[in-house]
Structures are given as structure tokens and as C-alpha cells.
From TrEMBL:
UniProt cross-references to Pfam families, sorted A to Z: EF-hand_7 (PF13499), EFhand_Ca_insen (PF08726), Spectrin (PF00435)
Start and end residues of each EF-hand domain: 76-111, 119-154
Species: Pitta sordida
Domain of life: Eukaryota
Keyword tRNA processing belongs to the record: no
A GO molecular-function descriptor: calcium ion binding
Alphabetized PANTHER family for the sequence: SPECTRIN/FILAMIN RELATED CYTOSKELETAL PROTEIN
Keyword Repeat: yes
Entry protein name: SPTN1 protein
Record keywords, A-Z: Actin-binding, Calcium, Metal-binding, Repeat
């Protein structure tokens, strides 16, 4: 993107030559050029639009790189968000209407309830409060990426908090928790739930430890999407 933008910038001198030629033709009162339907003004406007687009794309990419570096959101996740947006942006306008945005979220694993048209949809409305607070009816790529990154970051934080809580339950902060530790520290229902949903812990040699459960894998599986 940066290289393309620099290439476009470098071609500004070509446009300058065309503008000089155009000015010379005007001085000679040649106002109708049969060799091209383009005008110098039109070309300058198109060049400006291209330059603006290059700057916007670069800014967007820089934001995504910064987001990845500061939030720990993986490159794969960012790619998937971006790919989904493009898939639902049928008219390639760089923005999604509310219906397209809702379909996009569902495809990314959001469990949004199906509601009849005109019926209240509080869950989706609260998401729109974040991405389209002024309700202009559209969500831009930038707004959408910012929303997805913030959601992903919340998940990362929450999963780390839960992981730390399990680590505190297990003696000496081991990467597994025993059946006994679960029943000592949690309610019976909570411990039953953990035991029925956690995988047995495997040591480095692939052997199961008796009554030991893998809380790290369990916690991370809770926070997929």
C-alpha cells in the first residue's frame, strides 16, 4: 500500500507536464482537443481522489497494525474480520448497512436473535450504539474493525482473568487443576460443570494425569468468538 501510494505521488510530475501543456493550448486558443476526452481539471481531480484513497488505505492499515501490536489480536483474526466485511459489502462502497452488518456479525459467530421487521432488537441496538451512535444507517470499515478489535480485546482480558483465577486454585500455579481443588474452592454445581466440560490434563509425554483437568484449554475454548 505504501509503495503504491509513493508510485502515485511520484506521478504528480507527469500531471504537472499535462497541466503545462493544457495551459499552453489555452494560450494558443486551442480549446477543443480531438485526441482525448479528458480535461486537465478532470485528471487533476482523479489524481487527488487516488491520492486521498492511498492515504486512507495507509491510515487504515497502520491502525490495524497498531491494533494487532497493542491488543494481541492475531493477524488471522484481523484478516477474517476484514474478509467478512468485504464479503457483505456487496456494492464495494466501503460500508455496510445495518442488515449487512448484522449478517456479518452472525457469520463471525455472534448469536443474535432473529426478530421480525419492526420488532425491538435490544441486543443489536446496543451494538449499534457503539458502531453507529448517530444512526446514519451505515457502518464503515474503520468503525467495524475498531468494534471487532475492542470485542476481541475484551475477550482476551476476560480469558486471562479466568485463567489466573484457576491458576490461583491450583497449588503452586500448575497448568492443571485437580478434582479435589475444584470441589474445595467452587460450589458443587460449578465444580460439576468444570469437570464435565474440561479435558483431562496431558503431561509433556502425552500421558493423562489422574484427576487432573486442563483449565487453560477450557478457558480459551470459552472465548472463541
Amino acid at each position: 500500500s505504501q509503495r503504491k501510494h509513493q508510485e502515485i505521488r511520484a506521478m504528480r510530475s507527469q500531471l504537472k507536464k499535462i497541466e503545462d501543456l493544457g495551459a499552453a493550448m489555452e494560450e494558443a486558443l486551442i480549446l477543443d482537443n480531438k485526441y482525448t476526452e479528458h480535461s486537465t481539471v478532470g485528471l487533476a481531480q482523479q489524481w487527488d481522489q487516488l491520492d486521498q484513497l492511498g492515504m486512507r488505505m495507509q491510515h487504515n492499515l497502520e491502525q490495524q497494525i497498531q491494533a494487532r501490536n497493542t491488543t494481541g489480536v492475531t493477524e488471522e483474526a484481523l484478516k477474517e474480520f476484514s474478509m467478512m466485511f468485504k464479503h457483505f459489502d456487496k456494492d464495494k462502497s466501503g460500508r455496510l448497512n445495518h442488515q449487512e452488518f448484522k449478517s456479518c456479525l452472525r457469520s463471525l459467530g455472534y448469536d443474535l436473535p432473529m426478530v421480525e421487521e419492526g420488532e425491538p432488537d435490544p441486543e443489536f441496538e446496543s451494538i449499534l450504539d457503539t458502531v453507529d451512535p448517530n444512526r446514519d444507517g451505515h457502518v464503515s470499515l474503520q468503525e467495524y474493525m475498531a468494534f471487532m478489535i475492542s470485542r476481541e480485546t475484551e475477550n482476551v482480558k476476560s480469558s486471562e482473568e479466568i485463567e489466573s483465577a484457576f491458576r490461583a486454585l491450583s497449588s503452586e500455579g500448575k497448568p492443571y487443576v485437580t478434582k479435589e481443588e475444584l470441589y474445595q474452592n467452587l460450589t458443587r454445581e460449578q465444580a460439576d460443570y468444570c469437570i464435565s466440560h474440561m479435558k483431562p490434563y496431558m503431561d509433556g509425554k502425552g500421558r493423562e494425569l489422574p484427576s487432573a483437568f486442563d483449565y487453560i484449554e477450557f478457558t480459551r475454548s470459552l472465548f472463541v468468538n
